[in-house]
Design brief:
By secondary structure, this protein is α+β, with helices and mostly antiparallel strands. Helices cover 20% and strands 24% of the residues. The chain contains four helices and eleven strands. The strands form three sheets. The protein has a seven-stranded mixed sheet with strand order 1-2-3-4-5-7-6, with helices on one face. Strand 10 and strand 11 form a beta hairpin. The radius of gyration is 22 Å and the shape is extended. The termini are far apart.
């Protein structure tokens, strides 16, 4: 179970007011914890209301292991500006992104299924609504040129090239299970030998 008080400073400060966060949390059977929605399994945060936070840059939303965010609302941050195209890097499960008017949906229609304005009935200012993050690996060809690698989505307009099963090493050229026992055995032996040598030479 996630301990809110010990883990997530981004969740603190106020209670969620974004209808996108509140409605999604209810649909998923989650529980609102201050700014965040805690999943029904009580182990991850799946949505966060970062409205009215005086941000000038998008905060790091991947620094906590228990953030598996599907919905993020960043409206009412009038000075928020895009830093670069890595603002939402690694948010591979992000499906609804709500942004202030001055902040366009990253990647545009190349990245999102639907782009529109937020509901005017919402109590917060109108902003940009980005819905349905596309799988860039399906819409882009030849993104991973290495023969034994495959494309894996890594947030809006980003991807990783990972080695296929049983391949590893430089350019995924090595086949078979990584020799962990041999690697760590040699590393440990070298470390012990170096430590003993330094002990005997330095203590004099």
């Amino acid at each position: 179970t996630v301990q809110v008080g010990t883990a997530i400073s981004l969740c603190a400060g106020k209670n969620a007011t974004s209808s996108y966060i509140i409605n999604y949390c209810a649909q998923q059977g989650g529980e609102i914890k201050h700014r965040c929605c805690l999943s029904s399994e009580n182990d991850t945060f799946i949505a966060i209301d970062l409205t009215d936070s005086n941000f000038t840059l998008v905060p790091n939303l991947t620094e906590h292991d228990n953030f598996i965010l599907s919905v993020v609302d960043l409206r009412s941050n009038p000075n928020l500006t895009p830093r670069n195209d890595t603002d939402f890097l690694a948010l591979q499960y992000l499906n609804t992104l709500v942004l202030p008017n001055q902040f366009d949906c990253p990647g545009g229609y190349h990245v999102w299924e639907n782009i529109s304005k937020t509901d005017t009935n919402d109590s917060l200012p109108v902003g940009n609504l980005c819905i349905g993050q596309k799988n860039i690996c399906l819409s882009t060809t030849d993104v991973c040129v290495e023969q034994n690698s495959h494309c894996s989505p890594n947030g809006p307009n980003h991807f990783l090239c990972l080695c296929k099963t049983k391949y590893h090493g430089y350019k995924c050229l090595r086949y078979g299970t990584f020799p962990s026992a041999v690697f760590f055995g040699i590393s440990t032996a070298v470390t012990i030998a170096a430590s003993v040598l330094l002990y005997w030479t330095q203590r004099r």
